[in-house]
Amino acid sequence: MRKNVKDAYAAAPGGAFYEGRDAFLRAALESVAGQFALDGASFYEFEEKSGLLRLRHRHACGVSFEHEEDLKPAPGSAVARALEALEPAVSKSAAGSFLFSPFRFDYCDPAGGRGVIPCFGLFRLERGPRRRGFSPAEAAKADAHLKSFLRDYYKAEFFSLNRKYDKNVAAITELTEVFATALRVRDSFRHILAGIQTYFGFDRVRLYLIDEKNRKLKGELSADIRGQIKSISYEEIPLEAGAHRFADIVLGRSSGAFMERYKDCVLYMPLSVQGVTIGLLIVDNLLSQQRIEPQELAMLKSFGGQIALAVDNARLFDKVEELSLYDELTKLPLRRYFNQRFQEEFYRAERFKQPLALIWADVDYFKEVNDTYGHQIGDKVLKEAGRVILSNLRKIDFPCRYGGDEIIILLPQATGEEARRLAQRLSQELAELRIPVPFSKARELRVTLSIGISTFPQDAATMDGLLEKADDALYWVKSHGRARIALYSEVAEERKKAETAGGIKDAPAS
Question: Which pLDDT belongs to residue 167?
Answer without folding.
Answer: 59
